[in-house]
Each structure stands twice: as C-alpha cells, then as structure tokens.
Design goal:
alpha/beta; six-stranded parallel sheet; 13 helices
C-alpha cells in the first residue's frame, strides 16, 4: 500500500492520541506537526520522529508534498482550519464533533464538495465490532421495521477539568460550544444514525442541565458554562424516533446501553454498571418463545478478517482514512453523519433555551458560526 504523507495540526491530548493511532496502521507517513506552542510541537516531533515543525498552519499548508492534514484542535477551530486546508488542496481528517455549530459544519461539507477533497470526521464507534454486528442484523432484516432507538452515554463524575480530567477548554462555550453532547454524545448519536440509515430529522425537543456541585476553585478557573447532562427526543421522517441521554456527571450507577428496536427484534449495545459489564445482546421471538441472546462479536470479527482481505480498513478511524486515501475502500459518510449529529445536538440546545419543540428547518435557519477568527 502506498504511504500517504500527512500533517498533524494540534499536538495536545487529541493530537498525541491520533499520532499513536497512526503508528498502529501502515500507510501513514507523518511529515509535519503544527502547534502554536512551539516547545510542545518540537517535543512531540522528537518523540514521534516527525521531521518538520510549524507554529503557523498557513505556512504548513503551502507545502505541496503533504496530501492530507489531521485537525486535532478544539471545536471552534475546526471549520476555519479545515476549510483553509481543503482550499489549499489537502484532504482533511478532523476530530469530532465536526465543528462548533451546524452552520460551520455545513460550510466544511460545502468546501469539501467544491474542492473535490475528502473530509473525514473521527467517529470511533463506527468501527466497533458491536456496530458491525448491529449493522449486519439490521441489513439482514432480523429487526424488521425499525421504529425507535435510544442513545445513552454515562459518566458518574467525569466532567472535564472540574473532575480532574482534561483542560478548561472543554467546558467553555467560546472554545467548545457545547458540553456532554458535543464531547461524548457525538459518538453514540452518530453510531445510531449510521445504524438507522441516516434518516431525515424533522423535529427535536430537549433539555440541558448543569446542577451537580463542583469545587469552587475549579468552577472559577474553568468558567464552566456548558451542559453536564443533555436529554432529547428526535422525530424522523416516517415516524422513527430516537431518545437521548448523555451525562458527564449524574447521581446514578449507570445507564443501559444504546438500543434499537424493530417489529421483529431488538438489540442493545454493551454497557458498564456497578454490577459489571453487560455484553452486546439481540432480542427476538423464536417458536413463540422470547429469546434474549448475547453475541460473540469477537468471533464474528475474527471470521470477517479471515474472509474479507479489506476488513482491516474498518477496524479504526485512522485505518479507514488511510485505506480510503489509497482507494482501497470508499470513505464512510462520516462528515454527513457528524453534521446530522450536530443538527440534533444543536436542536436540543435550541429547544432547551426556547422551552419548546423545534423543527430541523428552524435549527438550520437559526444556526450561526461559532468559529474562532484566525
């Protein structure tokens, strides 16, 4: 496989994670890193043996020997740097969520279409063995007509910075635009949209909360002004519905895993509670008897790798990106999935602020740019 020459923009926590992931797949040559913190950029370049270091992304984009860039910055920086990179002729892989607002995410997709470049968003749950199993069951008709899904995400006390993890940038609207829904909900909502076949959103109602106590010093330092808990109900064209609960912090011992139900069967994603790990499960009726089955997804995954020579291209987001750049497999519609996930999250925020259900058309019409001017 031909090696693709890639640059990383942003070498913080996410940038380092992406570099680690590239090291696990073949076909990626990291040519340069860029960060406004030159000392950290040089330290990371030395650690990962990257030959070139930049502090200005514009200078990096002038290089004609770089095919793609990987944007590993906070949400409100995604759109301006992604669009600049696309217009410079680079393919772009961007960390989730797609941007800080639907408006900015839509602008990124338009730029990709206008330039003919690929745009890939990091949606790691799409490559889980459980997602592959669920997709197979649905496509084989084992669930029948799908009519409802539930998206869940749980942390007991896992708010960035105030609970000891991450930086204050995660908790400030001016940088991140949102909280639990943007940070973690994107994984679960996009996963379900993918499994449901990306249905068209019609209406959304929702509510957000920030109620739990936190250390006062950390509250003041973080300027915590985003949600720790987001709830929503989404209605799709054709009557399909999706309810959402996403918690950075809540006084409970866990939620059931995300689920999908249809006229013939249902499935639930794995989840963890204080009682232990609950595996992927499939629910059906056989000979008028209720069947609640666990699935050996790892055995399924091993078999797929034995039978399909390109199965590796769906094992990770970075691996899929490299395979798509090489033309081995078509790129999954991650940008479209991420944009529709943004529509839902922004709809929950809008509904919470207005105190009523909102339409998809309203959300799109009212969405404005939150991008940082560079």
């Amino acid at each position: 496989m031909e090696s693709r020459r890639i640059a990383i923009i942003g070498v913080g926590q996410i940038g380092k994670h992406h570099l680690d992931e590239y090291a696990r797949v073949s076909g990626a040559e990291i040519v340069a890193v860029c960060d406004v913190n030159e000392a950290e950029a040089r330290k990371v370049a030395e650690q990962y043996q990257v030959p070139h270091v930049y502090t200005d992304f514009r200078e990096l984009l002038k290089r004609d020997d770089i095919e793609a860039v990987d944007v590993c910055l906070h949400n409100n920086f995604h759109a301006p740097i992604t669009i600049a990179a696309l217009e410079a002729g680079k393919h772009v892989y961007c960390e989730k969520p797609i941007a800080g607002s639907y408006y900015d995410g839509a602008a990124m997709l338009e730029a990709a279409k206008a330039t003919g470049r690929k745009l890939h968003i990091q949606l790691a749950t799409l490559y889980n063995a459980e997602t592959k199993a669920a997709k197979t069951l649905i496509e084989d008709g084992q669930l029948g007509k799908l009519y409802h899904a539930r998206s869940t995400g749980f942390r007991r006390r896992g708010r960035p910075y105030v609970d000891g993890y991450g930086t204050p940038s995660f908790t400030q609207k001016s940088i991140a635009s949102g909280g639990a829904l943007y940070d973690m909900g994107v994984y679960h909502i996009s996963q379900l949209l993918y499994l449901l076949g990306m249905p068209r959103v019609t209406r959304i109602s929702g509510q957000t909360y920030q109620e739990m106590e936190m250390l006062q010093e950390r509250r003041e330092t973080s300027k915590f002004d985003v949600e720790e808990l987001g709830l929503g109900l989404v209605k799709f064209e054709g009557g399909l519905t999706l309810d959402i609960i996403e918690a950075w912090a809540i006084y409970l011992d866990g939620f059931e895993g995300s689920s999908i139900v249809g006229s013939k069967g249902g499935l639930r994603m794995p989840y963890q509670t204080s009682q232990g790990q609950h595996p992927f499960s499939f629910h059906h009726t056989v000979s008028d008897m209720d069947l609640n089955a666990t699935v050996d997804v790892q055995a399924m995954n091993r078999r797929r790798h034995l039978l399909n020579p390109n199965e590796w291209a769906y094992d990770s987001s970075q691996g899929h990106w490299i395979a798509a750049l090489n033309g081995i497999v078509p790129l999954l519609p991650t940008a479209e999935l991420a944009l529709n996930t943004m529509l839902i999250s922004q709809g929950i925020y809008m509904s919470s602020a207005l105190g009523r259900e909102v339409t998809a058309d309203e959300i799109i019409a009212e969405s404005v740019s939150t991008a940082v001017r560079l």
